[in-house]
Amino acid sequence: MKMISNINCSRGGEIFALLLMAVCLLSLACPAPLQAAADNIQINYKDQLLTLKAQDADIKNILLKISDLAGIYVRFPQAIEKQITIELDKVPLAKALKKLLRGLNHAIIYSISDKKNRAHVASVYVMQKSKGVSTGSFSSINSQKESIITRRIQHYEKTIQSLNERLSKVDSNSPLGQRYTRQIQTYQKSLDSLR
Fold first, then answer.
1. Which class for 128: exposed (0-12), middle (13-18), buried (19 or more C-beta within 10 A)?
2. 36-128: which CATH topology?
3. Residues of 73-106 as b/e, b for ≥16 C-beta within 10 angstroms?
């Protein structure tokens, strides 16, 4: 500050130096608030709870502000376009991110670093939707999951059929018959839950 006041300047330079000094003093006197307000976004993050109010705001701007305040890594494609209106009051970060990213392909990565072994959000990835596929980047994962479920259903059906054949060859009131009956019921419940 002293260096600026000792500069010999013309009248315009003195005004510039005074303005520069005023800006420096204001920036020191007014610390940055915990709330960020731009693009109709009000956001606060304290004690791992997120308070967010956004009106027709760009999802990218919201994610960047959350990243800064919460200290998490956020990655998203530049081509993503989503305007969002949302209001959350003291919601845990993971739950808030799930609501915020609803309808977008995303992954939330958790980390355990505190002494109580509680998981907290470490990073968020938003993926580009694939062309022609409504489920986007997760389409191959979903098709693999469907394939696994289909194979499991077929396995359960074959097992139930085999157990019914065994049951037909023994007395259903015998210990072996009762065991087959219990197994059939267990497999049937599992089968019903998959369908």
1. middle
2. Phage tail protein beta-alpha-beta fold (3.55.50)
3. ebebeeebeeebebebeebebeebbeebbeeebb
Edge to edge, the sheet with strand 83-92 lists 36-38, 41-46, 49-58, 83-92
Pairing of strands 119-126, 83-92: unpaired
Torsion of CA 4, 9, 14, 19, to 10 degrees: -50
List pLDDT tens digits, range 131-185.
544 444 444 555 666 777 788 888 888 888 999 999 999 998 999 999 999 999 9
The H or E element containing residue 136 is none
Identify residue 156 by its one-letter amino acid code. Y
For the chain, state the CA radius of gyration: 30
Q: What is the DSSP letter of 32?
A: P
Ranges of each domain in the chain = 1-31, 36-128, 139-194
